[in-house]
Amino acid sequence: MTKSMVKLRNILLTLKEHNANNYTTIKQVYNARNSYHSSIRGSNTEMQQLMKILERDQYIHWRRLNDEDVVCDTFWSHPDAMKLSNACNLIFLIDSTYKTNRYRLSLLDIVGVTPTRMTFSIAFFYLEEERLNNVFWAQEWFRDIFLRCDALVGVIITDKDLTLMNAVKTVFLESTNLLCRFHIDKNMKAKCKILVDKKKCIRLWHRSLGSLVDCPSEQNFDECFMKFEIACSPWLHDLFKNITNTYDNIIYLKI
Predict the structure, then answer these.
(1) Counting CB atoms within 10 angstroms of each CB, which of 18, 124, 157, 177 has the fewest?
(2) Quick one: 113 and 23 in the same domain?
(3) Is 2 within the bounds of a domain?
(4) Please, what's the largest Cα pairwise distance for the chain?
(5) Residue 77, beta-bridge partner list
(6) CA–CA gap between residue 234 and residue 97 (Å, rounded)
(7) Residues 16-26: what's their mean pLDDT?
(8) Is residue 3 part of a domain?
């Protein structure tokens, strides 16, 4: 089941369904899976096994060594993902995932969007640190995916990670960098909950602030903004203060 990519909890559930007297715990399943992976790897280190699998499956991959010849940053991308990137080069989303691996490395994930609003993973980077040097290296390799200089990235969406934004600004001079709506919504909803009770906050968010963020054009923004002011009048000053402290300008609401 591990070879078939079955999740741990489903493995445990299957074992108990086949034998009602089975007392296996999730920890035992986890240990058995690790032993299985170690047996496949043999004498190879984890990094050697990763390189072996990438080469076996014909992934495009690069790595960078530090002064001690130790791999500090690595990148891989599937050939089909690179073809899709060159065909659908308008919108890309870049974000990092933290604390999801035993080495506490940052996983930088780049996702593309097709004209039919489907998403696809383009590339993954394991970075030793999230400093400008590391992120800049990742963005340069991302740029090299594109075969035509006149068909580069149109829009790159990120959270307000200044290191990532500065790297994008330097490497992709022709691109527009926008802030992620999901992160804006998440941060502003958290601020609203501090100021008003839960029911009013949900109503406020989904009706007034939601319509403001989703307004279809700049011409309609003033009208939506007026409705937002009326709905939020009891907490308007505090709400604006929190919003503008979260982002530099209320104009980001238009994104």
Answers:
(1) 18
(2) no
(3) no
(4) 68
(5) 60
(6) 38
(7) 89
(8) no
Q: What's residue 136's pLDDT?
A: 92
The answer, yes or no, to whether residue 121 has pLDDT greater than 60, is yes
**Is the torsion defined by CA of 58, 145, 84, 149 positive or negative?**
negative
The verdict on 171 and 242 lying in the same domain is no
Tell whether 229 is covered by a domain: yes
pLDDT of residue 223: 81
Torsion on CA atoms 191, 196, 200, 201, rounded to nearest 10: 10
Do 135 and 216 belong to one domain?
no
Note whether 137 and 115 are within 8 A (CB). Answer: no
pLDDT at 173 over 50: yes
Average pLDDT over residues 39-67: 86
- pTM value is 0.70
**Other CB atoms within 10 Å distance of the CB of residue 66:** 10
